[in-house]
């Protein structure tokens, strides 16, 4: 993971300014720092009366939210005040409207609470205070906070542009499988996974075409020429007679960052740096052709590379979520076993899923992620193990 993260980090682009709504889902390129005290002025917490000195008080005016408050200049004065309105200079207390009465003489009587009923400047944050560091994902809540601080735009990392190239003569883009051919199951799902990981897939997924070395070189070159920062290919990651990705990378002068990963499923995945004709380089993730293996490659290699690109921290150095197993999960010898699991809402335990072969999608469609079983070990029911989660949008449940 760290090598993939470092590869993405090395390609981190310069920050861009994005208006607040457009910054949602991006990552802060600079710390979010308050530009003024929050609140910027004393603010009433209740509807009531701002009073000065002992009562009863003579009414001198009304203060609504958004208006400039005239000061209370003498004891015995008060002004009606709304929640969120500016507390006038000279105020010694605020009497809640439900605790006050207006007499026949027009004067206000009542007892203020012992605790002041207004927010002081800087109560939430002081001017110049760092609220979130660079690398923080931008959420709707953070956008609201930025607006309250006076921001109209934020410095964020631009989303990487991704292209998906589907290879395989055996693949159909429509219709029923049969006669030795199967439906392409990766083209429809990879853009969704990539968008959940923070990338933008802004060009159509290539439909399965002629599976030749020349076709690989041409498709990869065209994808980078069209502006892709990351190219994800499917299939051909082994070294068989019809596996063309490695020869294509050699022809393109690519540098391997990761050539394979000792995990099951997903072993023949790769990540490479491809030089671009105009200078610089792009990343190519070679995903295995089996659908579940391809998703393993996404969460193992593509996710950390995109985290590095966005300026987020290295996932390998962050605590992994953990789950308690409700059933045993076998190991895979000297390789790490990534076992599809779902979480049972009834007991909160994680259970291995059936239909979890590397070419199957039925288990993946229900999964919360992959339970990580270390090499040369197995896990028993009740054991707590790391979870490599699937990327989800808010509201989605694995």
Explain this structure:
The protein folds into 3 domains: 43-119, Molybdopterin biosynthesis moea protein, domain 3 (Molybdopterin biosynthesis moeA protein, domain 3); 162-317, Molybdenum Cofactor Biosythetic Enzyme, Chain A, CATH 3.40.980.10; 322-389, Beta-clip (Beta Barrel). The strands form 7 sheets. It has a 6-stranded mixed beta sheet with strand order 8-5-7-6-10-9, with no helix packed on it. The chain contains 7 helices and 26 strands. The model has no long low-confidence stretch (mean pLDDT 90). It is an alpha+beta fold and 398 residues long. The relative contact order is 0.13. GO terms for molecular function: metal ion binding; molybdopterin molybdotransferase activity. Its cofactor is Mg(2+).
Strand content: 25-35%
| Range of helix content | 10-25%
User: Mind telling me the CATH superfamily name of the largest domain?
Assistant: MoaB/Mog-like domain
Largest sheet: 6 strands, mixed
Shape: elongated
CA gyration radius, whole angstroms: 30 Å
Q: Kindly report the CATH topology of the largest domain.
A: Molybdenum Cofactor Biosythetic Enzyme, Chain A
Assigned CATH architecture of the largest domain: 3-Layer(aba) Sandwich
Strand order of the biggest β-sheet: 8-5-7-6-10-9
- Note poorly predicted spans: none
Distance between the termini: 23 Å
Domain MoaB/Mog: 163-308
GO biological process, one term: Mo-molybdopterin cofactor biosynthetic process
Pathway: Cofactor biosynthesis; molybdopterin biosynthesis
Family: Belongs to the MoeA family.
């Amino acid at each position: 993971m760290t090598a993939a993260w470092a590869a993405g980090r090395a390609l981190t682009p310069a920050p861009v300014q994005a208006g607040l709504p457009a910054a949602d889902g991006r990552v802060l390129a600079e710390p979010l720092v308050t530009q003024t005290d929050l609140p910027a002025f004393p603010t009433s917490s209740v509807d009531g009366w701002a009073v000065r000195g002992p009562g009863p008080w003579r009414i001198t005016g009304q203060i609504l939210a958004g208006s400039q408050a005239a000061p209370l200049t003498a004891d015995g004065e008060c002004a009606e005040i709304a929640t969120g309105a500016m507390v006038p200079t000279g105020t010694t207390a605020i009497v809640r409207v439900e605790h006050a009465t207006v007499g026949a003489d027009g004067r206000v009587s009542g007892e203020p609470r012992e605790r002041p009923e207004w927010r002081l400047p800087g109560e939430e944050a002081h001017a110049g205070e760092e609220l979130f560091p660079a690398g923080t994902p931008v959420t709707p809540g953070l956008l609201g906070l930025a607006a309250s601080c006076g921001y109209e735009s934020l410095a964020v990392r631009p989303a990487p542009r991704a292209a998906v190239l589907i290879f395989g003569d055996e693949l159909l883009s429509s219709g029923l499988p049969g006669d030795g051919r199967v439906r392409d199951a990766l083209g429809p799902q990879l853009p969704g996974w990539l968008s959940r990981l923070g990338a933008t897939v802004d060009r159509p997924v290539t439909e399965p075409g002629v599976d030749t070395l020349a076709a690989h070189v041409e498709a990869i070159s065209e994808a980078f020429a069209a502006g892709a920062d990351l190219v994800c290919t499917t299939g051909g990651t082994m070294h068989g007679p019809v596996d063309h990705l490695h020869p294509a990378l050699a022809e393109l002068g690519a540098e391997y960052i990761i050539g394979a990963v000792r995990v099951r499923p997903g072993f023949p995945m790769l990540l490479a740096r491809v030089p671009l004709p105009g200078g610089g380089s792009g990343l190519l993730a070679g995903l295995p052709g089996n659908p579940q293996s391809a998703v393993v490659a996404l969460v193992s290699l593509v996710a950390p590379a995109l985290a590095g690109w966005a300026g987020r921290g290295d996932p390998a150095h962050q605590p992994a979520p953990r789950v308690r197993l409700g059933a045993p999960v076998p190991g895979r010898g000297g390789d790490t076993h990534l076992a599809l699991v779902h979480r049972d809402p009834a007991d909160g335990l994680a259970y291995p899923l059936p239909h979890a072969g590397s070419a199957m999608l039925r288990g993946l469609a229900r999964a919360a992620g992959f339970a990580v079983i270390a090499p040369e070990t197995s896990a028993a029911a009740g054991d707590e193990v790391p979870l490599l989660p699937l990327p989800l949008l808010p509201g989605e449940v694995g």
